[in-house]
Amino acid sequence: MIETKPGDTLGVVLEKVGARYPKQEAIVSGEQRITYETLMHRVDSMANALLKMGVNKGDKVAIWMSNIPEWVYAHFACIRIGAPVVPLSTRYKVHELEYILRQSDSTTLFMMGHFLKVDYTPMIYELCPELKECQPGDLRCERLPLLKRVVIVGEQSYPGMLDYSEVLKSGEDYASSAGLKKAQEAVAPEDVYIIPFTSGTTGFPKGVVTTHYQYMRIMSAVSARFQMTEKDRILVVSPFSHNMGNMTGMLLGGCNGACILPMVSFDPGEALRLIDEEKVTKFTGSPTMYIMMLDHADFPNRDTASIKAAVIGGADVSPDLVRTIMDKMGIKDLISAYGLTENTGVSTMSQPGDPPEIVANTAGKLIFDDCDLKVLDPDTGAEVPRGTQGEFCSRGFYVMKEYYKLPEETKKAFNKDGWFRTGDLGTMDEKGYIKITGRLKDMFITGGVNAYPAEIESFLMTHPKISMVAVTGVPDRRMGEVAMAFVKLKEGQTATEEEIISFARGKMANYKAPKYVKFVDDFPMTATGKIQKFALKETAVSELGLDKQ
């Protein structure tokens, strides 16, 4: 990461990078090759335009787009003037959009007209019918009284909305703007940078308030672990709206003068092409993504050896898969990691030189000397012995400030001694390496005994025929709930349900062994490559008639 000094913010770091590497590529998106000089011109133009429209420090700005350059300009423009960013998933529907825009107090919405086969304009008009009649930039919406303006990226004009390109153009006199300079100088490290929303155990999304300082520290540690330089080229497959796409994409590139290559949605063939032709050096993906690339017909024709370091996360992997990825893709440094939004995205990472067994079976160890991560008993709050399962609890600078406008939920998130309760279960060994064994909220009770899907998945992954597996609890008249395993076999392998069930019963307690097994070719996935277990469970319950018990 570029050298910083006390008082620097993310906006200052980007400015330093732009001044040092003006002719270096910052973004490659389709046919667009955008240098840092151009990036800074567009960022400060948009920042100036926001000020002209009445967006001030502390005003919340929501962004509802896929991984396009316009996301980056709006994001960094907000950073420059101290307007907290509220990232919105491209998968949101009207009720989710309404809840988060209202709960976050967003005054401005950046959006795109459509993404893939989804048209967003009917959704915003349904939510704010007043848009069709108002002057652009002067919205008065009954359901969202604080939302004043909607800025849209599109090829046509829309009633009541501001055109993104016109807004950008309106701020191009930024060099002579005393107001912009004053606004930039007023941003401090402890100011709020971003409020991503995450679903909690209560079932509704909560806005996680985090600061410039927290992300500055995170980016310094991640940059060091990735051994980042201005010559790096980062393939970004996670959405910018997700911490992974933001942190190991926009911020990692922008803080180091590196180039990002964002994909609007993951396609294994296109990912292989970009890695080969653009000489990608850094990559972060789920096990599914790596498997899809390895299995792709074009893989033998592509050179992936340019990747110097990559993160694999989001699901259990076997040591064999780790070795296969490293050997076949030529990746020297494959990194496992653990983090959550409330802890500024990342807490632990595996270390250089860790063998495949460590990468596969642990999520590394804490990367901050001045923070704490302990395994505590979920009921008593007491620290458990090394190697014993408990709940990961954290303390230090990387813990969120609060859940936005939810004081009671914030209070519940911490135990009586001030430790943040992650809700993640696991163990820590004598060297500080952690292993995730489950989520408190994923736990199901079978015959009165707690069962943890991640523990069962980890064991089933040792079966020589299994490529991927997901376990969930399903209803059972006698036991309350029982385990069901959704299994994807390795290419060319065949197996029976009884074979998998017998394998589990022979090696683990009967109550943990799956009662049902379903073989699948693919899994329903989130935009960040995680398996949607709720979708698997709903389908299975219906197919097996368990909803009629």
Q: What is the beta-strand fraction? A: 15-25%
- Computed CA radius of gyration, to the nearest angstrom: 24 Å
Distance between termini? Answer: 57 Å
Q: What is the number of strand segments?
A: 30
What is the CATH T-level topology of the domain at 38-206? Rossmann fold
Major sheet summary line: 5 strands, parallel
- Write the CATH homologous superfamily of the domain at 38-206: ANL, N-terminal domain
CATH class of the domain at 38-206: Alpha Beta
Based on the coordinates given, report the CATH architecture of the domain at 38-206: 3-Layer(aba) Sandwich
Shape: globular
Whole-number mean pLDDT: 93
Low-confidence stretches: none
Strand order of the largest sheet: 4-3-5-8-9
Q: Helix amount, in percent? A: 25-40%
The protein's oligomeric status is single chain
Structural class: alpha/beta
**Tally of individual helices:** 17
Description:
With 549 residues, this protein is an alpha/beta fold. Among the domains are: 38-206, Rossmann fold; 444-548, GMP Synthetase, Chain A, domain 3 (2-Layer Sandwich), CATH 3.30.300.30. It is 32% helix and 24% strand. It is built from 17 helices and 30 strands. It has a 5-stranded parallel sheet, sandwiched between helices. A 5-stranded parallel sheet has the order 14-13-15-16-17, sandwiched between helices. Strands 10, 11, 12 and 23 form a 4-stranded antiparallel sheet that branches. Strand 1 (25-29) and strand 2 (32-35) form a beta hairpin. Helix 2 packs across helix 3 and helix 2 crosses helix 6 (164-170). The longest helix is centred in the N-terminal third of the chain and has 18 residues, at 36-53. The radius of gyration is 24 Å and the shape is globular. The model has no long low-confidence stretch (mean pLDDT 93).
